[in-house]
Structure formats: C-alpha cells, structure tokens
C-alpha cells in the first residue's frame, strides 16, 4: 500500500472527536431532560440508550469509550509519518510511544485516587490507563509489522482472548455462565493479580486481561488512518468512505454473529464488542468524511464541542471520564508538561501539530 507523504489536515477527524467529546462532556443529560419533560416515546427510547448496560448487551453509550480509542488510533499513522519526516531516530520514536503510554497509566491512577498513599485500597485500573496501554501496544505493533501481520495481530488478539475465556472458566464460584462477573477468567485474574480495589467489587472494566482486545480497537483506528493516507488504487475520499462503510457493516455483522457465542459486553471488552463497536465506529467516521474539505454548520458545531470539551469548567457528575481527568487533574498541576504528554493520542494530522494538550495549556 502506497502512503501519501504530504501532510493533510483531517477536519472530519476533528468533527468526529467533537461528536465523541459532546457525549463525554455530558450531552446525554440534555436528552434525558427532554425525555423527562416531554414523555415522548422516541426520546424515552433514546434516553435509555444513554446509559450503559449492566453486563451483557449494547447501547449507544457503550460505544463512546471504544470510539475514543478508535479516534486515537486514526491519528497515529499521521503522527508517525510526521515524526519520521523530521528524521527522528527509531529510539526516539520508541521512547515517545512508551513514555506516553505509561504517563497515561500514572495519570489514571492519580485521577482515581487523588494523592493517597493507602496503596492497598487504590484503584489501579482506569480509563486513561486503558487508552494508554492499548494505544501504546497497538503503536508498537504498527511500527514493527506490515499490514498483513497487523491484521493477524488484530484477529489473533480477539480470537485468543475468546479462547482463553472459553476454555478456562471459573466454575468454583458456582457461576453457570462462563462470561458472568463471577465465572469469567478476566475478572478472576483481576481479583487475583490486580492490587488495590476493583471498580465494581469483583470486577474491573479496565483490568489486565481485557487490555488484549482493546489493543485491537486501537489497531482498527490505525487501519482506518493508514487507509485514508494511502494512494491505493487512487481511490477518492468518497470511495474510501464507501469502502469503510462496507467494512464497518461487515465487522458489525461479525460482532453480532460472534455475540451468539461470546456475548457483546463492554465490561469484558469482549471480542464481539470490539467488532460491533468497531464496525459502528468505522461507519460513523465515514459519515463525517464528506465534510473533509468544506465544513458546514453541523461539523463546525462538533468542532466547537471538541475544543470546549478540552476546556470546559462545569463537569462534575463524578463519573470516571477522560475529560474530567483533563480538567480536574491536569489543570490543577503544571498543565503544560502533563498536557503535552497527551499530544500523540489527540494530535491533529497535518501541518497543525497542536494536540489536546496544546489546547489545555493556556488554561
């Protein structure tokens, strides 16, 4: 696959990021309020979609986190190409990727626990930690393999995770469902190996083993970013968008079929969940692509949401959300060094090298 060498700004990615940030900022409360006020069936149905399912199943709100990681993956091929064009050494690239990954893990621990030295009761798993580790391992795979090997990694991680949970159930807790909170291997390993406290008592949604399939979510975003940068068959942007819609539809269908054997489950980050949420993410990104060269009102609003999401000062619903980390933790410390650590995840492709951290720095 031939890759374009010239930098190119993806306004569509900015708009998609704004869409995701709108919900992370608390956009669901607008629609829940409207549903309460009007009682309209459509709004009541949509309000229900704006809550996570308790265990097995899928609602719209379960897609927000994997979409966030997918977007981070899209940006990486552009960031890597930019750094390679500046002739950065291989060692520098590795330091850049690994340090950013572990900085996000540390920031996630700080956000979960504030400044606490009660090591036995800290929560070590976090949303930022999941983003940092999944993105880091996916980036290392992307830097060291060709496209066919990366595809093998993508499916190998998903199938391997499924087989581990299927062939090593935890029956001695009396759970009949091998994918239940008490009966699945991922939760058991977190209870056994993860220090401190788990997020929901006997399970942590950002645990150790479930990082495996999350790497595939980040890889999927990198596939999309590399495909957009490529000159394969000289496809136009619209043709690439249609190709991603087809690929996304196929991946979502695989997720639904896999759901019959391995339930779609965000808490487990199940393989079927990766395929279904990843397929929807591809389709959604494709919808934004026509606005790549000419932004009209809706994408402009989403771009505004993206920037406001990076600087909003009114988020306090107490949920473990990345935007709150950016405001509450980063801005109360020295914002410039900490926020710059997030740049590789949210770097805008092309000449504009400002990332999320740069938008936070003045605040």
Distance between the termini: 41 Å
Order of helices and strands: HHHHHHHHHHHHHHHH
Structural domain tally: 1
Computed Rg? 20 Å
Strand content: under 5%
Q: Helix amount, in percent? A: 55-70%
The averaged pLDDT comes out at 79
User: Number of DSSP strands?
Assistant: 0
Globular, elongated, flat, extended or rod-shaped: what is the shape? globular
User: Uncertain regions: pLDDT < 50 for 5+ in a row?
Assistant: 291-363
**Biggest β-sheet strands, sense, barrel:** none
Label the structural class: mainly alpha
Helical stretch tally:
16
What do these coordinates show?
This protein is an all-alpha fold and 363 residues long. It has one domain (11-360). The chain has helices at residues 11-24, 28-38, 41-49, 64-85, 90-113, 127-144, 147-167, 185-193, 211-229, 237-258, 271-288, 297-309, 322-329, 335-340, 343-346, 356-360. α4 packs across α9 and α6 packs across α9 (211-229). The longest helix has 24 residues, at 90-113.
Explain briefly what this protein structure is.
With about 375 residues, the protein is an all-alpha fold. It has helices spanning about 10-25, 30-40, 40-50, 65-85, 90-115, 125-145, 145-165, 185-195, 210-230, 235-260, 270-290, 295-310, 320-330, 335-340, 345, 355-360. Helices cover about 60% and strands about 0% of the residues.
Can you give keywords for this protein?
363 residues, mainly alpha, 16 helices, globular, disordered C terminus
């Amino acid at each position: 696959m031939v890759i374009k060498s010239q930098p190119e700004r993806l306004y569509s990615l900015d708009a998609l990021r704004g869409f995701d940030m709108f919900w992370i900022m608390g956009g669901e409360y607008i629609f829940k309020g409207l549903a309460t006020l009007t009682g309209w069936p459509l709004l009541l149905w949509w309000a229900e979609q704006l809550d996570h399912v308790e265990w097995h199943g899928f609602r719209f709100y379960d897609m927000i986190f994997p979409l966030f990681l997918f977007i981070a993956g899209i940006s990486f091929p552009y960031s890597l190409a930019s750094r390679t064009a500046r002739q950065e050494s291989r060692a520098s690239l590795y330091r850049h990727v690994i340090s950013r990954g572990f900085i996000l893990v540390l920031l996630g621990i700080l956000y979960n626990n504030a400044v606490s030295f009660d090591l036995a009761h800290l929560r070590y798993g976090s949303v930022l930690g999941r983003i940092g580790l999944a993105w880091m391992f996916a980036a290392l795979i992307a830097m060291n393999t060709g496209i066919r090997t990366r595809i093998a990694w993508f499916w190998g991680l998903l199938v391997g995770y499924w087989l581990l949970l299927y062939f090593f159930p935890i029956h001695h807790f009396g759970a009949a469902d091998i994918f239940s909170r008490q009966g699945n291997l991922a939760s058991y390993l977190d209870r056994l190996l993860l220090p401190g406290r788990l997020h929901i008592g006997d399970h942590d949604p950002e645990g150790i083993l479930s990082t495996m399939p999350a790497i595939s979510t980040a890889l999927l975003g990198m596939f999309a970013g590399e495909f957009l940068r490529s000159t394969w068959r000289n496809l136009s942007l619209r043709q690439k968008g249609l190709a991603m819609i087809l690929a996304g539809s196929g991946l979502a269908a695989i997720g639904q079929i896999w759901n019959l054997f391995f339930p779609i489950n965000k808490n487990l980050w199940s393989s079927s969940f990766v395929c279904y949420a990843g397929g929807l993410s591809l389709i959604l990104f494709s919808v934004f692509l026509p606005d790549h060269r000419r932004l009209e009102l809706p994408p402009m609003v989403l771009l505004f949401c993206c920037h406001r999401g990076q600087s909003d000062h009114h988020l306090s619903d107490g949920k473990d959300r990345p935007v709150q980390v950016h405001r509450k933790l980063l801005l109360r410390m020295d914002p410039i060094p900490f926020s710059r650590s997030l740049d590789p995840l949210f770097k805008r492709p092309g000449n504009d090298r400002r990332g999320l951290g740069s938008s936070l720095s003045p605040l």
